[in-house]
Design brief:
Elements lengths: L1 E6 L7 H17 L4 E3 L10 H4 L9 H12 L10 H10 L2 E9 L6 E9 L3 E7 L22 E3 L2 E7 L6 H8 L5 E6 L3 H15 L2 E6 L1 E3 L10 H5 L4 E4 L3 E3 L5 E4 L6 E6 L3 H6 L32
Parallel strand pairs: 1-2, 2-3, 7-8, 8-9
Antiparallel strand pairs: 1-14, 3-4, 4-5, 6-7, 9-12, 10-11, 12-13
Length: 309
């Protein structure tokens, strides 16, 4: 199976223009024969880098509140059909797509870091909301739930996916391994220093292929008029540097993107290697001990209220 990890910059805080970037990348990947295409964390419409490069925890600061409003306005409303163009493209190109989005909640006033799984025949088949935003992300994103902790089928192969530091959460990984994936997708905001060790670790622990995608973000991508742009620029002009990488079940790197480069990474996966790697270790098979160790996963989609008529 040929796979693609997209390492591009979004049209930052511009939902429709970023979806243009997504569809164009899918078209290029289709030309190269990729069946699985992976985009970075919250690619539509961008990772909240302004939290890391400003005084984001200043309470009731007007510029921080205005920046959040920009971020909220650029978020994806799935019920409104904001990803319809991506769904149509996936069908046209025959691709399974993992796309990181900023998902607007049903209440309309909070956002989630969500990983959307799009099947070429069935459309959106999964929306996984990040279980625990990391560090400064907690100033922007709401906590997710377990509803999206599901592996999906692609050409008879199971594929799983997690957001960023969820890939360091032992029980989140275990929940995915238990579903028998041969390919694991990990999506990141863009940092080789963080991504590469984790990708090789997960590949070897899960005895599977890892397709990791990270974004690029520079000063030129921040729109003029964004309330925190000037403050961000005091920290430099590069805010995300990629880190996309594709790793085999034995930890061997199959493809690695150059730091800061905007590119699409490709690899042909020999899926027979998964079974061979699990000959001596299978974390959810012959090397598991369900009689001693157990994991319960609550897949309930959480809501602030349950209405009974």
């Amino acid at each position: 199976m040929k796979v693609a990890a997209v390492q591009l910059a979004p049209a930052y805080l511009d939902r429709e223009a970023t979806i243009d970037v997504v569809v164009e990348a899918m078209a290029e990947a289709a030309h190269e024969g990729a069946r699985l295409v992976v985009f970075p964390e919250t690619f539509v419409s961008g990772y909240p880098s302004f939290v890391d490069f400003s005084d984001a925890s200043t309470f009731d600061a007007p510029d921080q509140k205005a920046a959040f409003r920009w971020y909220l306005d650029a978020a994806v409303d799935l019920a409104r059909g904001d990803l319809d163009r991506v769904v149509v493209a996936a069908s046209e190109f025959g691709q399974f797509v993992y796309l990181g989005i900023v998902e607007r909640s049903t209440s309309g006033s909070s956002v989630y870091c969500s990983l959307v799984a799009i099947d070429p025949a069935d459309g959106i088949v999964g929306v996984h909301r990040k279980l625990k935003p990391t560090y400064g992300e907690r100033l922007v994103w709401a906590d997710g739930d377990g509803a999206g902790l599901r592996a999906h089928e692609l050409d008879g192969i199971r594929v799983s996916g997690l957001n960023c530091w969820e890939n360091w959460m032992p029980l989140a990984r275990a929940a995915m391994y238990a579903q028998g994936p041969s390919i694991h997708v990990s999506v990141w905001p863009g940092s080789p220093a963080i991504v590469h060790d984790n990708a090789r670790f997960v590949a070897q622990e899960g005895r599977l292929f890892v397709v990791a995608a990270g974004a690029v973000l520079r000063a030129e991508h921040i729109p003029d008029g964004f309330p925190l742009k000037a403050e961000m620029l005091t920290h430099g002009d590069r805010f995300a540097s990629g880190g996309s990488i594709i790793v085999a079940p034995d930890g061997v790197v199959l493809a690695e993107a150059e730091k800061h480069a905007e590119t699409i990474l490709y690899a042909d996966l020999d899926l027979d290697l998964v079974a061979e790697a699990r000959h001596n270790f299978d974390p959810s098979g012959h090397y598991s001990r369900p009689d001693v160790l157990g994991l319960t996963v609550d897949r309930t989609r959480r809501s602030p209220a349950t209405f009974v008529d």
